[in-house]
Amino acid sequence: MKKKMKKQKTSTIKAYHPLLILIVIFFIVFSGKIMFIQATGEWDGFDLEQWANQQREIKAVTKAARGSIYDRNNMVLAQDLHVYRLYAIVDESFSPNPEKRLNHVADAAYTAKALAPIIGIDEQEVHSIIENGRSDGRFQVEFGREGTNLTREQKLQIDALELPGIHFIEEAKRYYPNGIFASHVIGLAQTDDEQVITGITGIEAQLDDLLTGEDGAIRFLQDNYKDPLLNDEAQILEKADGYNVHLTLDQKVQTILEDALSQVETEFNPKRITATVIDPKTGEILAMGSRPSYDPNNLGNVTNWFNDIVSTPIEPGSTMKIFTLAAAIEEGVYNPNETYQSGAYKIPEITRPVPDYRKHWGTISYAEGFQRSSNVAMAKLVWEKIGTDNFLSYLKAFQFDQLTGVDLPRETMGRLVYRYPIEQLNAAFGQGTTVTPIQIVKAATAIANNGKMMTPYIIQSITDPNTGEVIQSSEPTIAGEPISQETAAQVLKAMESVVTEPTGTANGVFELPSYTLAGKTGTAQISGGASGYLTGRENYIFSFIGMAPSEDPELLMYVTVQQPELEPTEAGSKPVSFIFNHVMENALHYQNIQPDKDEITVVKEMVMPVHIGLDTKTTVEKLEAIGIKVTVVGDGQVVSASNKQAGETILSSDHVLLVTDQPIMPDLTGWSLREAVQLSQLLQLDHEIVGQGFLIKQSITPGTSIDQGDYILLDFTEFNPEIMEEVETED
What sequence ranges are listed for the domain PASTA (predicted)? Predict the structure, then answer.
């Protein structure tokens, strides 16, 4: 029995022996693995120490600010702005102990009533958003467009209410303090889904890499109680804010320009406007604007993203004649007193003659031809005196065949169309060939700057806000010297005569009260594609390039207005002159440029006195005594009609018409279209108008007695699209 039991025990031990061996082996392997993990911190190639640190690691990102954009006087034009997005937690489970503390919106009605007036949403709409979110089983809700881009002031107002479940997400937004101000220049930057601000257009896009900073971070380890480990050293990566950009733009000059552009856009509804103000001695762009434009803070429906001044070539029209004249003077072949037959110019190599826009001038001097903007004068200079090959070399010397190098994005250039004789003649007066406005501005600096042509630029400097270091700066650069100082002076004198002489196309239209002015008008046709040029009195690009003071220009300005909507009595130069005269006069004063006119005319406001039915002589003496220009129509003793009403506010520069009880037709030569029409209406004449601008011919002889209903033809000198012959380009 005992022997049998011993045998059973031995059998049992033998049965468990393999299991014991396995347990021992497992224990040895496991112990070895533990010792290996302790020694290496790894498990099957997985770094357990790193994983543990990651579980305990806290990493906080410090966002870098995008660089700001400033004007030349350090006025902010673009900057980062911290805004807030509102959201509400509506899930009841987020308040596990509601009696002690509410973490969600429990009272939707109260919350809606408190939030609605601050964020500008109807109270019922706020209530519906909260209740709909709750019924849909959502954890949180947001409040649409009105709940985003909240200011710090709005956030503080809401914080003060201590509403349960109401929270904010801080976001970055690009903000433009001046709205529509120089939008095509500064450009646009917007925040993406990752809360990164990226430049899209303009300087914002061109210098995006420099404006964008590098985020910083701080890293430390925490224990199970969320406290930092005492023996851990925090790792700090300093943020680097983006570089600041300083432009040559002057905020005050730009504001004056923007106001003028907006006024003309409202009054004349043109298709396009461009305007540039530049210091011709340095090439610094002080103001640059165009329409249509956009407000980068509130985009709406943007119809044009491009900066037309650098990106859209146009036919320049007669402003090109200043460079044709410069080439003739530089070559020594220009005699201002030499005469020629105006009207039309025909050479055997072309099928149709080059026309002047008027046919009646007859034989005139080249000086008068330039003042009148004669196409024939320019064509003859190129074909007979300068030579077509030589003239092409001047066009290239003025760099119309290349980019200007302006530091703005998406610059394109026009195209010199100069293969055939008709194209060569057309180029003399700005037809066929295309240029961008900035190409015209650059070339014109040579006229204003003693023959030295300056490269236009708008980026003054780039600085590092973290160190104060200047990373990049711009200096005036001479792009070339296409003409001599003597030639530039003669061209300036010729341009001044366009403004001061009665035969000049700018006379009485472009004028600065305090400064002498040199300039040139332009009326460029618009290509209609395969159908040729557009027709109609409004389908032109009206332009003016001017420099002041004329003897030594401190500022240069170029304005173009395309297809304005004009009244029958309005010339295409009206919207252009409004922009130019207003901006240039004010900009020169702001720049502290000393006025150079001997007598500065100060325009005053006054009230028109009672005059109808009063003695003619006494009324005239009274008006002239206060500086009013008066024209008396007739030799009657009593004033019977006037273009001004008693009590009306008038300017000292206004022209008052007094019709007597015995009207006689005055000499209307030189009168503007508006003045002539006003008189015709006062006299109740049946008038017919030919052309526009200033009157040169009338069908009723001055001194003739007139009666109501008499017919009069009023013939004007300025460009008349209806009678101009189109010049066809030959292949």
Answer: 662-718
